[in-house]
Amino acid sequence: MTASACGLYIIANSVAVVVLYKRDMGMTIAESLRHRPMPLVMIFLGFFGAGYPIGLAGFHLWISSRGESTHEFLRNKQLPEEYKSRPFDTGNVFKNLYIQWFQPYVASNMRNRDKFIVGDKRFEGS
């Protein structure tokens, strides 16, 4: 979210530069931008810099409110309608967000960094 804050800061400062330059020189905004085009470039860069993190955060907020993970969202795009399911959807947006954000993580029984032991069931298929 730091990139979003920086992008919005760049946009605000660039707009302020254009408006103050317009006021001080007695020009229109178009004349001000023709005379000093760099603030316009900075406005576009600010939109690009802020847009991606804000969009990504919004997307994850949306799928969290639906009770899905990114994997389930992408998998359900490929499945026929009768196979689509959202097993973690509670039917309430706020309850879904509460479960996603504040529920404690379940401890995993998988210890991937343990030493290999002959007969270990995890490695039988490989």
Report on the structure:
This protein has 126 residues and is mostly helical. The protein folds into two domains: 1-52; 66-103, no CATH class. The chain is 62% helix and 0% strand. Helix 1 (2-25) crosses helix 2 (29-35) and helix 1 runs antiparallel to helix 3 (38-65). The protein starts with a helix and ends in a 24-residue tail after the last helix.
Q: Count every helix, treating DSSP H or I runs of 4 or more residues as helices.
A: 5
Helix content: 55-70%
Oligomer status = single chain
Strand proportion: under 5%
User: In sequence order, what are the helices and strands, one letter per element?
Assistant: HHHHH
SS elements, strand count: 0
Mean pLDDT: 83
Whole-angstrom Rg: 25 Å
Task: Report the biggest beta sheet as strand number plus sense, adding barrel if it closes.
Answer: none
Count of individual domains? 2
Low-pLDDT residue spans: none
What structural class is derived from the secondary structure elements? mainly alpha
Shape descriptor: elongated
> What separation lies between the terminal Cα atoms?
41 Å
List keywords for this structure.
126 residues, mainly alpha, 2 domains, 5 helices, 62% helix
